[in-house]
Task: structure prediction
Amino acid sequence: MIVLGIETSCDETGLAVYDTRRGLSAHALYSQADIHTDFGGVVPELASRDHVRRIIPLAGEVLAEAGLAVPDLDAVAYTAGPGLVGALLTGAAVGQGLAWALDCPALGVHHMEAHLLAPMLEPRPPVMPFVALLVSGGHTQLVAVERPGVYRLLGETVDDAAGEAFDKTAQLLGLGYPGGPAIAAAAAQGRPGRYAFPRPMTRRPGLDFSFSGLKTAARQALAEQGGDWQTRADIACSFEQAVVETLVIKAQRALARVEQGRLVVAGGVGANACLRAALRELPGVELHFPRLEFCTDNGAMIAYTGAMRLAAGAATERAVRAYPRWPLTELAPFELTAPSERVQ
Ligand code: KG4
Ligand code: ZN
Result:
């Protein structure tokens, strides 16, 4: 089955082709970061309008790269939520329109399930069950993944998501958008340990997160110390250290809670080099990441997730619907196509 995947939940237009027999055939991404950088965050209406401009040319690009024509597609998968409603609707409308024209099925995919399954695209995919640390711009969650579609929420943020904290703190420090890579770059020039920022909610039991206090701590440090470059780099460094250590403590606690040693890290903050390095230090943990470009939003994870669910017989509908809020725990279980059934 050859599936076109469309990701438009936020500020990245991602297109990809996944073939259940051959694996990932092609993928392409257009990042809108330049459009939103002056605003310090994503402007939803600008995001929707730009997706409209990008989807069709990118679809043409991935089909050409895969050596396919539009009629070769067997199905279309698009992100149906969670995300920005206008942005989601652009992908849903194009996906459903294309499927209607081709008289083939179209499936709305859950964006966070797709993040969670992104490491399955790697040469040594994780075996379920595992614990997933999902850290993106909109979500910070620890999830017990029992089998495909069966996800138990162990903990989540009570305020800002980890990526959101990076973005807001970067804006505060005048480092631009998206904040994650900007903070990481500034932190590399910073002196570690200059500020004793908190590790929120790590002293009491539980697996929830809170990141809004860290942003406030960074704001206070900036107000007290002034805004020269070295101070801002030092703040970025201590901030990154605090987020990373907090995530590592909670991930380790989640593994202990479910008596598991297998950890999957996915979502944009999973691209953070310090986080990756710190998690690699954990003893007895089998660690899985998607490749860097599949940590942040992309079409490949949508094409893959859609293809797996469609191959397992997921019900589809001919309607343009988007779900800005959509709990991961509401999904239906399904069977993954075994890797042996694919031609590698
Ligand atoms: O998964 P993603 O691309 O989009 C959402 O689903 O939200 O995640 C985007 C988030 C942004 O907040 C961005 O600042 C953060 O991921 N991010 C990073 C890094 N790269 C992206 N955070 C820390 N370090 C990075 N290297
Ligand atoms: Zn995402």
The chain is about 40% helix and 20% strand.
